[in-house]
Specification:
Number of strands: 21
Structural class: alpha+beta
Radius of gyration: 23 Å
Largest sheet: 8 strands, mixed
Helix content: 25-40%
Strand order of the largest sheet: 10-11-9-8-5-6-7-14
Number of helices: 13
Distance between the termini: 32 Å
């Protein structure tokens, strides 16, 4: 790989005697990793059924190195049991120290690695906002939230400054995984190399400063911000934080930079800061709109098919949601809020894929399938089942949900959305 001359000159000035080791790291293979989704399975249990060998990532207890070329093309991935994530990118989210019951924001969230990591720590308790300014990327983020079965997330698509106008002093914890020049991704994404320049670094730094200003406005007093990048440029890392601390009532708790010649990973920076002045505000709660007819049809379907009762029901058009507790009334675009239960159509209820993937095997009537049938199902095909099996059934593999089917006369009709088939 031919690295930009200006980049190498800057890194030599930055690293001194470590520069040669740094450059040699680009001759190593890219490190691949996954993070076990503890909302569905423990790390120990996943280790037992994993289709490939695992080696622990030191800074994330549910993170593992893998050598498989396509870890995102397995049945267990489709079931949401893990998220494919570059190992060093797992280092920032644990530093936010989130807990259940808190209000948490991942401000630049797509495609969702760090945000879904935060969701695991919250374990369904509290309110998690995942924001992405780009709509197409926000849709990818939303699909990852769905696959991992996250129930307490709200996926929004808004500029940081618009969010800041809505959520002043509201959040307990904010993660800012800022858009950056991507120096830590040169090996993983070679397209980032020709896009790099000193001017790009400075442009990113200006944008990051504005994003941090918005994050500060949304943070409650005593709250914590974790700022992270996948770049080594001081203007985007240490100097960015120094400037922020000069102009905002925050203190630095911790910072660290992972270099690829020192760890098994591509590189990352993070800084942890705490807000020491201000207040903590509340927002009016969203008034639930529950169409009685739609709710009645859903409750009847739920009583026949589920062993769990969803609450905080809200109807938008013909779509029924189970909203997170304490859902505020917001004026920004939301692609997802809580669990999309399904659609009311033709005087009947049809469950959504989102509902299927947030259930456990014990919470619904189901059909357990073997590996061959699971692969067939994930390709969108029908499959044979016992003639006694009728109606909506959850399709499970190794007792983990993959989606819905509708069975009759010994045939299970596939209800897997086209967009999630493999």
């Amino acid at each position: 790989m031919e690295l930009p001359a200006d980049f190498k000159s800057r890194m030599k000035d930055l690293l001194g005697n470590d520069f040669e080791s740094f450059i040699k790291s680009y001759g190593r293979a890219v490190f691949k990793g996954l993070r076990v989704n503890t909302l569905k399975i423990t790390a120990d249990e996943f280790n037992r059924i994993s289709p490939f060998p695992l080696r622990p990532v030191p800074w994330e207890k549910c993170g593992f190195y893998v050598t498989d070329e396509s870890p995102g093309k397995t049945i267990l991935h489709a079931a949401g049991l893990y998220y494919v994530q570059e190992p060093s990118a797992m280092c920032a989210a644990p530093e936010l120290d989130v807990h259940g019951g808190e209000r948490v924001l991942d401000l630049c969230s797509a495609p969702g690695g760090k945000g879904t990591q935060l969701a695991q720590y919250m374990d369904g308790d509290g309110l998690l906002f995942l924001n992405e300014i780009n709509l197409s990327r926000a849709k990818i983020l939303s699909s990852n939230v769905e696959r991992l079965g996250i129930k307490n997330a709200v996926v929004t698509c808004a500029p940081p400054e618009k969010l800041a106008a809505c959520f002043e002093s509201y959040f307990d914890k904010i993660l800012v995984d800022a858009p950056c020049s991507g120096e830590g991704m040169f090996k993983k994404e070679s397209s980032a190399v020709p896009e790099w320049s000193v001017q790009a670094v400075l442009s990113c730094a200006r944008r990051q400063s504005a994003i941090l200003d918005s994050a500060y406005k949304m943070l409650a007093v005593g709250g914590r911000i974790v700022y992270s990048t996948c770049t080594f440029a001081p203007e985007e890392d240490e100097l960015q934080i120094a400037s922020f601390l000069q102009n905002h009532a925050c203190i630095l708790i911790k910072s660290d930079k992972l270099y690829p010649h020192e760890i098994d990973g591509e590189g990352h920076f993070f800084a942890v800061m705490e807000k020491i002045e201000g207040e903590r505000s509340n927002l009016p709660l969203l008034k639930s709109f529950a169409d009685k007819k739609i709710i009645s049809v859903y409750r009847q379907w739920e009583s026949y098919n589920l062993n769990i009762k969803f609450e905080n029901l809200h109807v938008f058009g013909q779509t029924l949601y189970s909203l997170p507790d304490a859902m505020p009334d917001i004026s920004v675009m939301a692609l997802r809020a809580g669990v999309r239960l399904g659609e009311y159509t033709g005087n009947r209820f049809e469950p959504s894929h989102s509902l299927a993937l947030c259930l456990t095997a014990e919470q619904a009537d189901r059909v357990e399938v073997d590996e061959a049938t699971a692969l067939k199902y994930l390709r969108g095909l029908t499959f044979a089942c016992d003639e006694s099996v009728r109606g909506w059934k959850l399709v499970t593999y190794k007792n983990y949900p993959l989606g819905w089917c509708k069975a009759s006369d010994g045939v299970a009709k596939n209800k897997l959305p086209k967009g999630v088939r493999i």
